[in-house]
Design a protein that fits this description.
This protein is mainly alpha-helical. The chain contains 8 helices and 3 strands, in the order H-H-H-H-E-H-H-E-E-H-H. The protein has helices at residues 5-34, 38-42, 53-62, 65-73, 86-99, 105-109, 129-154, 161-165; strands at residues 75-76, 115-120, 123-128. The chain has a 3-stranded mixed sheet. Helix 1 (5-34) packs parallel to helix 7 and helix 3 runs parallel beside helix 5. The two termini are 15 Å apart.
């Protein structure tokens, strides 16, 4: 059977969101045990010209649930909203994961061929839904999830590749 747009988008988003939720919880426990201030994690960056951890995690939610909502509306832009604390980031990821449940296979398959525009300032990038999800949303999702993971590693949180991969869809 060929992979569907639902499998490629929603199921992939679910896997990443579950993994991010898991490594956020693991990091919380580590930081509490080691006396590391979670606010320090939230403001941490890999490099001065990169966005902080809070932006990376918020972008994971934005490029999963937010991407599907953008396709539904025909318009998607960069993330905006409050600057979350650590607990708020955990809640945001949980809400994004729960929100994916509203997108059934029939709904997502119905997005195929729809126009969606990414707009930031004066720049607009036109896509069809499946190209937006596969060539823009998914790469961004993984970039931000990886960056959040890397910041936690940089801060000494004992997470590994299995934490990043989450629950794989293995045969059987």
């Amino acid at each position: 059977m060929a992979a569907s747009l639902y499998d490629i988008s929603v199921k992939s988003y679910q896997q990443v969101l579950d993994a991010v939720s898991g490594f956020l919880e693991k990091a919380r426990g580590h930081c509490e045990t080691q006396g590391v201030d979670l606010d320090e994690i939230v403001e941490s960056r890999l490099h001065p010209d990169m966005f902080p951890f809070r932006f990376q995690v918020a972008s994971v939610a934005h490029h999963s649930l937010g991407a599907l909502e953008g396709v539904k509306a025909g318009l998607f832009g960069p993330p905006s909203g409050p600057e979350y604390d650590y607990a708020g980031l955990q809640t945001l990821i949980a809400e994004a994961r729960a929100g994916l449940d509203a997108f059934t296979p029939d709904v997502v398959e119905g997005f195929a061929g729809r126009d969606v525009v990414f707009r930031v300032g004066e720049l607009t990038l036109p896509f069809v839904a499946e190209d937006f999800l596969m060539s823009f949303s998914l790469p961004n999702l993984h970039f931000h999830a990886t960056t959040a993971y890397d910041i936690l590693r940089m801060k000494g949180v004992p997470v590994g590749k299995r934490d990043y991969l989450g629950q794989m869809r293995i045969k059987g």
